[in-house]
Write a structure and sequence with these properties.
This protein is α/β, with parallel strands linked by helices. Helix content is about 30%, strand content about 15%. An 8-stranded parallel beta sheet has the order 11-10-9-5-2-1-15-14, with helices on one face. Strands 16-17-18-20-19 form a 5-stranded antiparallel beta sheet. A hairpin with a 2-residue loop joins β12 and β13. The protein is globular. It starts with 14 loop residues before the first strand and ends with a strand. It binds 1-O-alpha-D-glucopyranosyl-D-fructose and calcium ion.
C-alpha cells in the first residue's frame, strides 16, 4: 500500500530520524535492525510524527556507520533482508507514516564493484567513475584535507595514482562529471522510488560537483575549505537539476539535500522551484562551536550568533524566496541537543523540553532525532578505544601527531563527537535499556535508569509527553507552520524570543537558555499562556530553562 502523497506533504510534516544500528535489536546480536524498527512503529506513530528518515541500511563494510555503501540495491545483512525492508515500508504506510531513505551519492565504499574495477588499472572502463590523479612531486595532487583527518587523497600503489576521498579513505568520491555515473545513480533512485519510498535524503549533495583542477586550498580553516573548495562546485545546479528532471520528477517524492557549505545567500539556488531540491539541511548553527580545526577544535558559541542563524535563514528562505526550510538541532553526526545547547545536569528535563519547543515552533519542517524526545544525553567515553566512529578514531590519530594527550582529546570528543548520538535507544532501565538482550555494539548510556521511554510514558510531565503536547499544538495551529517569524528584542541575551504571526493570531515563544531566573520580559499584553515546560511558571518572569508559548488574538 503506497502512502497517499501530495506534492509538498513535507511542509506540515514532522520527521523522526532513526539510526538503524542504535534503535532496536530484534535478534539479539547486539545490533539494531529493520525488524526492530518494525516492532517499534506503534511507538513512533504514538509520537504524532508523519515520516521516518532512515539512515543508510544498504550493504556496507561499515567503515563510516553505513555511509560507505558497496551495494545500493541490497540490505546490510546485519540489518535484515529486502523482505524485512518491504515489511517495514508496508507497516509504516499502514500507520500513515512515510519513509525517507538516505542515499550517499558523493562517494561509494572502496569495496563497491565500481571501485574494485576502477582501481584495477588506468585503462579499466570504470576508471573514470572516480577521481584519479598523479601526485605533485612526491606528495598528493593537492593539499585538501579529509573530513576525517589526513589528506583527502590516497595513493594506490597498483596504478601509482591517487584517488580523491573527502571522507575516509574507504569512501572514494564519485566522478559526477561522467554521465555514466549519473545514469547509474538515476537508476538506483528509480529502484527505490518504484518500491514506494516517499522521500530521499541526499548525503553531502553540495559536494558532488568538483573543481576538477583541484587547486590547493589557501586557508587552513576547515569550514572555509568546505564552503570554498568542496561545496557549491561549478556544475552543482546542473547535476541537481538533471537528477530532478530524470529520476526525481515525481513532485510528491521529497528530496532533502544535506548541504555542508551551503549558505543563506546561495541556498535558494539549490531550491529553485521544481528544478532543485525541496529542502536542504544547512549547518550554520551546527558549526557555530567548531574552531578552525573543525569538530575536535571546539570553541564557545554565543546565543547572539545562535539566534542570528534562525533569523538569517528565515529571511533567506521565506522573505527573499519561496523556498522551504528544514529545522534540526541534533542528528547522528552531532552531540545530543540537550547536552550541546542546553543543560544535561540539574535542569536536564526543563532544557530538553525548551530545546524541543524551539524545534517545534520555527518555520520549516522539524526533524527530530530518535532519543531527543526523551532528552537522551551525551555519553562520557572513558577512553578513545570505546569510540566506534571513524571520525573520532582518525581525529585522535591526528591529535596524537600534534602531541595532544588522550585526556585532552577526550574532552573535545566527549563534547562534540558523533558517538554521543549513537548510543542505544533507551527503552527501559533493563541491563541493555530494552535495546537488546545482549551487550550492544555500542556502550549503553548509564543514565538509562533515569532516562528511558518506559518511565516517561507513565509520567504526564515527562519530556516525552511534553514533546507530544508540542507536536499536537503545531499540528492544530497552522500559524506555527506557515506564520511569519519575527525575532523579538530581549534585554537578556540568554532569552530567545520570537513571534509567529498569521491571520488573526500572534504566537509568542520565549525560551530561557540559562540556569538563572529572568524577570525582564517583552511586552506580553493581550497574550495568554498556552504551554510552559516548568511547574510554577510566573506571568512576569522566566524560571531556568523555561519555555513559554503564548497566544494573542489580533
Ligand atoms: O555528513 C557530512 C558532513 O558534512 C558533516 O555534516 C558531518 O558532520 C560529518 O560528520 C563530518 O563532520 C554526512 C553524513 O551525515 C555523515 O554521517 C557521513 O559520515 C558523511 O556524510 C560521509 O558520508
Ligand atoms: Ca540485530
Amino acid at each position: 500500500m503506497s502512502s497517499n502523497r501530495q506534492p509538498g506533504w513535507w511542509k506540515e510534516a514532522v520527521v523522526y530520524q532513526v539510526y538503524p544500528r542504535s534503535f532496536q535489536d530484534s535478534n539479539n546480536d547486539g545490533i539494531g535492525d529493520l525488524p526492530g524498527i518494525l516492532s517499534r512503529l506503534d511507538y513512533i506513530q504514538s509520537l504524532g510524527v508523519d515520516a521516518i528518515w532512515l539512515n543508510p541500511f544498504f550493504k556496507s563494510p561499515n567503515d563510516d556507520g553505513g555511509y560507505d555503501i558497496c551495494d545500493y540495491l541490497s540490505i546490510q545483512p546485519e540489518f535484515g533482508t529486502m523482505a524485512d525492508f518491504d515489511r517495514l515500508l508496508e507497516g509504516a504506510h499502514q500507520r500513515g507514516l512515510k519513509i525517507i531513505i538516505d542515499l550517499v551519492f558523493n562517494h561509494t565504499s572502496d569495496e563497491h564493484q565500481w571501485f574494485r574495477a576502477s582501481s584495477q588499472s588506468r585503462t579499466n572502463p570504470k576508471r573514470p567513475y572516480y577521481f584519479w590523479r598523479d601526485g605533485k612531486g612526491d606528495g598528493p595532487p593537492s593539499n585538501w584535507p579529509s573530513f576525517f583527518g589526513g589528506s583527502a587523497w590516497q595513493k594506490d600503489d597498483r596504478t601509482g595514482q591517487y584517488y580523491l576521498h573527502l571522507f575516509s579513505k574507504k569512501q572514494p568520491d564519485l566522478n559526477w562529471e561522467n554521465p555514466q555515473v549519473r545514469e547509474e545513480l538515476q537508476s538506483i533512485i528509480r529502484y527505490w522510488t518504484n518500491k514506494g519510498v516517499d522521500g530521499i535524503r541526499l548525503d553531502v549533495i553540495s559536494a558532488i560537483s568538483k573543481r576538477t583542477d583541484f587547486p590547493d586550498a589557501d586557508t587552513a580553516d576547515f569550514n572555509e575549505i568546505i564552503a570554498r573548495y568542496y561545496a557549491n562546485g561549478p556544475r552543482i545546479f546542473e547535476f541537481i537539476g538533471e537528477l530532478r528532471a530524470q529520476a526525481l520528477s515525481d513532485a510528491s517524492v521529497l528530496t532533502v539535500g544535506e548541504g555542508p557549505g551551503i549558505n543563506a545567500e546561495n541556498a535558494v539556488d539549490y531550491l529553485s522551484e521544481g528544478k532543485g531540491l525541496d529542502m536542504i539541511f544547512h549547518f550554520d548553527h551546527m558549526f557555530l562551536d567548531q574552531g578552525p580545526g573543525g569538530r575536535f577544535d571546539p570553541k564557545p558559541w554565543s546565543m547572539e550568533d545562535f539566534k542570528l542563524v534562525f533569523s538569517r535563514w528565515d529571511e533567506a528562505l521565506y522573505q527573499r524566496s519561496k523556498g522551504w526550510g528544514s529545522i534540526f538541532l541534533g542528528n547522528h553526526d552531532f552531540p545530543r541537543q540537550v547536552s550541546r545547547w542546553g543543560n544535561d545536569g540539574e535542569f536536564r528535563e526543563e532544557a530538553a523540553k525548551a530545546i524541543l519547543t524551539l524545534l517545534m515552533t520555527l518555520r520549516g519542517t522539524p526533524f527530530i532525532y530518535a532519543g531527543d524526545e526523551l532528552g537522551m544525553t551525551n555519553i562520557k567515553l572513558k577512553s578513545v578505544s570505546q569510540s566506534k566512529d571513524v571520525e573520532t578514531l582518525n581525529g585522535f590519530r591526528t591529535a596524537q601527531e600534534k602531541g595532544i594527550s588522550e585526556e585532552e582529546f577526550l574532552l573535545a570528543a566527549n563534547y562534540a563527537g558523533r558517538d554521543n548520538a549513537r548510543t542505544p535507544f533507551q527503552w527501559d532501565d533493563s541491563t541493555y535499556a530494552g535495546f537488546s538482550g545482549v551487550e550492544p555494539w555500542m556502550v549503553v548510556n548509564p543514565n538509562k535508569a533515569v532516562i528511558n521511554r518506559e518511565s516517561q510514558e507513565k509520567e504526564p510531565s515527562s519530556v516525552l509527553n511534553h514533546f507530544r503536547k508540542l507536536i499536537r499544538l503545531r499540528k492544530s495551529e497552522k500559524t506555527l507552520v506557515y506564520g511569519d517569524y519575527l525575532p523579538v528584542e530581549t534585554s537578556d541575551g540568554q532569552l530567545m524570543a520570537y513571534k509567529r504571526v498569521g491571520e488573526g493570531v500572534e504566537w509568542m515563544v520565549l525560551i530561557n537558555f540559562s540556569d538563572k531566573n529572568m524577570n525582564a520580559l517583552p511586552d506580553l499584553t493581550g497574550y495568554e499562556l498556552v504551554i510552559s515546560n516548568v511547574v510554577g511558571s510566573k506571568a512576569n518572569g522566566m524560571l531556568p530553562w523555561e519555555a513559554k508559548i503564548l497566544k494573542k488574538a489580533v
